[in-house]
Amino acid sequence: MYILQERLFSFEELQILESKEKLPIFFSALDLRPYAKQLKSSSPQGAEGHSKEGILRALIAAPLEGIDTFTSLHNRLKNDLRFRYQCGLDISRPAPSISTLSRVFSSLTKTGLVKRIFQDLVQLAQEEGVIDGKHQAIDSAAIDAYEKKQPKKRSEQTGNANWGAKFDSFGNKITWFGYKMHLSVDTKSELPMAIEVTPAHINDGDVAPQLIEQVKSCTNSKIDFLIMDGGYDQLKNYESAKNIGAQAIIPLNLRNEKEPPEGIASNGTPRCSMGYEMTYWGANKDQLKFRCPHATGKVDCPLGMAACSSSNYGMVVKINVNKDLRRYSNPHRDSKRWKELYNERTSVERCNSRMKSYLTANSLHVWGIDKVKTHIYLNAIVLLVSALAMAKESKKQQTA
């Protein structure tokens, strides 16, 4: 299988191209014919006779072009014949009306077709070597609602937009009225592999098991690590990871933390009889190995090694991670390897940023959670198609 170098499928590389160059490359990786056949019009005229594939192309191209309303998309199709032609729409006819674009978007929502397109693209990206999938980073991002703000109690009855709150990196509390976009992202390619959209008040940790199940269902390869921040420090998330044969990499949230077991530090490191934290010495399958800190030169114990062990190797303690999935981790918490893995979590932050800053994920002009999901899926599809398109372009250049 052809394995693409990471820099070659950068979303930013496609962004710097002019629209007239960008769209042909973008559409070259997107075959929408099978999906267009599944779109049924709600009107007898059938979307005014326009090509459903062309309208679907236009709706997917809209986030790439920074177009966030049906009115803006209609005007672009009306005034830019090149854009209309590149979308596969007849330039000798009037551009699709605003109501036609809205109607096709509603059909995508009712049929769930965008989710199927997204999942098929995820599988294709894996087959092409664009997505690795062994390491996943999970996080959420705030999405502002288009709906009119209303009291929290009334919002909870609708199941749509609601009030959410979180703390930023400076410790400031941020509130918003809207939704949360939850992503599971391949850390190598920084591409989304699973998506959930919820009202803003839903706890992140409650959504992670659904994302984990989604990712598992869309990949044939083994997932090794699932990386999340401290907000996901709940036993069910460690269990969900374990159920698919993966290790959850999550910092312990020590708020309301009970005392750790006797002789064990909060991070799962055993203490010797003198109270020193022992030295992590690797793992064998589910067994973590720890050695006497005096023997490894980490501390200068007044009793030396003799008080704990007659061996020159020093006392050894082994702990099975299954004893407490939350406290114990393989690799061990705070080890160099654990920290390297946790640093990969920034991949999901960059993916969230691309969808909100470069695309239109946070520029909603539809209301209701089902339509918001369609909007988010269209943005995620743009990232996947961009990566596939740049991969295809790179192959073409290498064989030229």
Describe this structure in words.
The protein is of the alpha+beta class and 400 residues long. Helix content is 40%, strand content 15%. The strands form 2 sheets. Strands 1, 2, 3, 4, 5 and 6 form a 6-stranded mixed β-sheet that branches. A hairpin with a 5-residue loop joins strand 2 (162-167) and strand 3. The chain is elongated, with a radius of gyration of 25 Å. 42% of the residues are buried.
* Annotation field: number of helices: 14
Chain-averaged pLDDT: 89
Task: Please estimate the helix content.
Answer: 25-40%
Order of helices and strands: HHHHHHHHEHEEEHEHEEEEHHH
Main β sheet profile:
6 strands, mixed
Structural class, from secondary structure content?
alpha+beta
Q: How large a portion of the residues is in β-strands, by DSSP E?
A: 15-25%
Total beta strand runs = 9
Q: Ranges with pLDDT <50 over ≥5 residues?
A: 1-9
Shape: elongated
Distance between the termini: 19 Å
Radius of gyration: 25 Å
Compact summary:
By secondary structure, the protein is an alpha+beta fold. 40% of the residues lie in helices and 15% in strands. Helix 7 (98-111) packs across helix 14 (369-399).
List the helices and strands and how they pair.
Layout: H1 11-15, H2 19-27, H3 33-36, H4 52-64, H5 70-79, H6 81-86, H7 98-111, H8 113-127, E1 135-144, H9 152-158, E2 162-167, E3 173-186, E4 191-199, H10 204-217, E5 225-227, H11 235-243, E6 247-249, E7 279-284, E8 287-291, E9 316-320, H12 336-343, H13 346-358, H14 369-399
Parallel strand pairs: 1-5, 5-6
Antiparallel strand pairs: 1-3, 2-3, 3-4, 7-8, 8-9
Helix pairs in contact: 4-14, 5-7, 7-14, 8-14, 10-11
